[in-house]
Amino acid sequence: MSDHIKIQPASGKWVVRAAGAVLGESDDALKLIEGDQPFVIYFPRTDISMAFFDKSETTTTCPHKGTATYYDLVAKSGTYKDAAWSYEDPKGDVAQIKDYMAFFVDNVTVEQL
């Protein structure tokens, strides 16, 4: 893996909440550090309540990770467009994040318990 991105287990239990609901909780989250950006917690999709999410049409491409697919968060209080993303076919150096999901913290709360 390049020095630009570091992936390590996120120690402890992590939770993601939004709109008054727990969307997921995991002991198997990953901490991704990219350059000098703040770290991002990636949750296994198996630990996320995917019923709250609809795949959006948005995609972006990262030269280091590949193509990201975005998801809208659908809650009683409304829909949060592109609230989460996932690399469904990440580049080889970051293959660990396949089947994991990350969240924009302006739409949800991600915290360690």
Structure description:
There is one protein chain. The chain has 113 residues and is mainly β. It has one domain (5-112): Domain of unknown function (DUF427) (Metal Binding Protein, Guanine Nucleotide Exchange Factor, Chain A, Beta Complex). Helices cover 0% and strands 56% of the residues. It has no helices and ten strands. It has strands at residues 5-9, 14-18, 21-26, 30-34, 40-44, 53-62, 66-75, 78-86, 100-103, 109-112. The strands form two sheets. It has a seven-stranded antiparallel sheet with strand order 1-4-5-9-8-7-6, with no helix packed on it. The chain has a three-stranded antiparallel sheet with strand order 3-2-10, with no helix packed on it. The radius of gyration is 13 Å and the shape is globular. Pfam families: NTP_transf_9 (PF04248). InterPro entries: DUF427, DUF427_sf. Residues 15-104 form the DUF427 domain. This is DUF427 domain-containing protein.
Set down the secondary structure blueprint:
Blueprint (H helix, E strand, L loop, with lengths): L4 E5 L4 E5 L2 E6 L3 E5 L5 E5 L8 E10 L3 E10 L2 E9 L13 E4 L5 E4 L1
Antiparallel strand pairs: 1-4, 2-3, 2-10, 4-5, 5-9, 6-7, 7-8, 8-9
InterPro entries: DUF427, DUF427_sf
Organism: Octadecabacter antarcticus 307
Protein name: DUF427 domain-containing protein
Q: Tell me the fraction of residues in β-strands, as a range.
A: over 45%
What's the number of extended β-strand segments?
10
> What is the global morphology?
globular
Percent range of helical residues? under 10%
Going by helix content, strand content and strand pairing, the class is: mainly beta
Mean pLDDT, to the nearest integer, reads 94
- Give me the side-by-side strand order of the main sheet: 1-4-5-9-8-7-6
CATH class: Mainly Beta
The assigned CATH architecture is Beta Complex
Total discrete domains: 1
- The gyration radius over C-alpha positions equals 13 Å
CATH superfamily: Domain of unknown function (DUF427)
In sequence order, what are the helices and strands, one letter per element?
A: EEEEEEEEEE
